[in-house]
Amino acid sequence: MDIMNKSTISEFILLGLSGSWELQVFYFLLFFILYSATVVGNLLIVVTVIFSSHLNSPMYFLLGNLSFFDMCLSTVTTPKMFVDLLREQRTISLWGCMTQMFFMHLFGGGEMTLLIAMAFDRYVAICKPLHYTSIMSRRLLYGLVLFSWTIGFIHTMSQIVLTVNLPFCGPNVVDNLFCDLPLVIKLACKDTDILELLVIADSGLLSLICFILLLISYTVILLTVHSHSSSGLSKALSTLSAHITVVTLFFGPCIFIYAWPFSNFSGTKILSVFYTVITPLLNPIIYALRNQEMKEAMRKLRTHHVSSR
């Protein structure tokens, strides 16, 4: 309860996206459509992976968990975001703000770790195909998913525990569509230099290092495939292109927002929208629409459901 004892404000004001009423209505409709597509698309992947007997490989198990992370990450901020677009006074309680940031970094940190697990899965599948089944066992898969949740929890707690204890007694205006850690920390009425460095080291540096490690791992996979068979390079590129696209689009905004979080960058709002609204939608688009096996499993599942009614 330290936050309630030290702080004299009980809510934050979110500036959101400025513009005319007509523009706000346009943003509302746009975000509502994108969020609905995100939930439906990712939920469809999760349901297909669970109920389709054809998608029992480790890759699709991890993909189902990635879709769950994306759906949760988008749900933390987007519903309130598009509701606020229709309100003149956009506020969020102090505890609501802390809760929003907690779950954002929980799901964000977990997804970073899960993407590394998916890169490891592709490495084993392409570079050690004969040992793939024995290495990527169910026990290892469950361990990787549990490890992702654990890293996400440690990642968010290491920052939120210190943020909760900050006193907020001055300005309470957050120049964004939702509570974002760097912007909220700046509103504290005490010196936050150490905490700002922690955010850069924890979120920014973590995003940058994970992104570099993932790119290195994909490069190693491609070089290994090329050294064994030039003809297999195109197939490996086709398999990894979806992963590389997801990794780039996920980590790009994170690096820009959190690696230099306390510098004034006019595009922060755009990157925040991209990170919370656009990126979670790209997962079902990239994996489902270009994956023939996934599309076939969805078609069979739909046919089975219709025939059983």
Describe what you observe in this structure.
It is a single chain. The longest helix has 36 residues, at 193-228. This protein is an all-alpha fold and 309 residues long. The chain has a three-stranded mixed β-sheet with strand order 2-1-3. It has one domain: Up-down Bundle (Rhopdopsin 7-helix transmembrane proteins), CATH 1.20.1070. It starts with a helix and ends with a helix. 37% of the residues are buried. The radius of gyration is 21 Å and the shape is globular. Helix content is 76%, strand content 3%. The chain has eleven helices and three strands, in the order αβααβαααβααααα.
Key phrases:
mainly alpha, Rhopdopsin 7-helix transmembrane proteins, 309 residues, 3 strands, globular
Fourth-tier CATH superfamily name? Rhodopsin 7-helix transmembrane proteins
Strand arrangement across the biggest beta sheet: 2-1-3
Mean pLDDT: 82
Report the structural category: mainly alpha
Percent helix: over 70%
